[in-house]
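Help needed: design a sequence for this.
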C-alpha cells in the first residue's frame, strides 16, 4: 500500500515531525487561542501562519543549500531550525 514512496528513516522522521507539529498546534489552539500579532515580518500573523512560513523558509534554506554548497545537509537543517525558532518566537 505504501510502496509508492521510499520510506527511509529520514523520510519517516520528517513526516512524523510534521504530523506532531500539527497535533501540538491544534492542542495549543484549544488551550490558548492564538492572537494575531505583528513581529519583524511586518505582517500580522497567527501562530499557525508563522509555523507555515517557518516550514517554507526551512524548505527553501535546504533547497538553496543543496544548490550552492557541498557541505553537510545537517548544517542546513540546523540553520533552518534556528530560523524557524526565530520566526515562531518573534515573527
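Sure. Designed sequence:
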Amino acid at each position: 500500500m505504501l510502496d509508492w514512496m521510499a520510506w527511509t528513516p529520514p523520510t519517516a522522521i520528517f513526516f512524523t515531525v510534521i504530523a506532531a507539529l500539527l497535533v501540538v498546534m491544534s492542542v495549543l489552539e484549544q488551550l490558548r487561542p492564538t492572537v494575531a500579532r505583528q513581529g519583524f515580518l511586518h505582517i500580522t500573523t497567527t501562530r499557525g501562519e508563522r509555523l507555515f512560513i517557518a516550514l517554507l523558509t526551512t524548505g527553501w534554506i535546504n533547497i538553496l543549500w543543496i544548490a550552492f554548497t557541498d557541505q553537510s545537509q545537517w548544517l542546513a537543517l540546523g540553520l533552518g531550525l534556528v530560523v524557524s525558532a526565530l520566526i515562531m518566537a518573534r515573527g
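The chain has a mean pLDDT of 90.
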